[in-house]
Design a protein that fits this description.
Elements lengths: L6 E11 L2 E10 L5 E7 L3 H11 L7 E4 L4 H9 L4 E4 L10 H14 L8 H18 L10 H4 L2 E4 L11 E4 L1
Parallel strand pairs: 1-4, 4-5
Antiparallel strand pairs: 1-2, 2-3, 6-7
Length: 173
């Protein structure tokens, strides 16, 4: 996978695990709408660095758009020294972070039906399932009814190539 695109967007949103508040960090590719990564943790500079380190192998965007939280500065400069860091102060700015805010709204609509998560492991598993569904199975009207994976040139292949392996594969087309 190679997401060397013009723009990535990053943001965090609050979720609860056993009633305790955590932050769920997402990074999304603006061109394909593909969720590049997520990270569930506290809201700290080390968490901002962790999500940027996680998505670093996937490509080199020209710019990364975030909210105005300072922790993103060092995390982006360290992991993506050639990318411009665009910090959006409000929704009326010329460049917005509406793309990921819209995704967060979609995620929250799904998450709110869960009434929080009962443990950290289950939270991670369910979020992974949601991201897989969003990236590989759910057509998006803004992408001409294609999935983000299809736009990125990836497809989900439910039939394993090896008949002795019972899992699905993700293949590049």
């Amino acid at each position: 996978m190679d997401f060397n695109s013009d723009e990535w967007h990053a943001d965090e949103t609050v979720v609860k695990v056993r009633g305790k508040k955590y932050y769920l960090w997402f990074v999304i590719d603006a061109e394909t709408r593909f969720i590049l990564g997520f990270y569930l943790s506290d809201r700290s500079a080390s968490s901002a660095h962790a999500i940027m380190s996680q998505v670093k192998p996937l490509g080199s965007p020209r710019s990364i758009v975030t909210d105005n939280w300072d922790a993103y500065n060092v995390a982006i400069k360290t992991n993506f020294p050639n990318a411009a860091h665009i910090q959006v102060e409000n929704f009326a700015a010329d460049i917005s972070n509406n793309l990921i805010e819209s995704f967060n709204k979609t995620f929250k609509a799904w998450y709110n039906t869960k009434c929080g998560f009962d443990c950290f492991v289950n939270a991670h598993s369910l979020i992974s399932t949601f991201v897989f569904f969003y990236n590989y199975l759910r057509p998006h009207s803004s992408l001409n009814n294609l999935t983000p994976a299809q736009v990125a040139g990836l497809n989900y292949c439910p039939t394993p190539k090896n008949p002795f392996v019972k899992s699905a594969y993700l293949v590049r087309t």
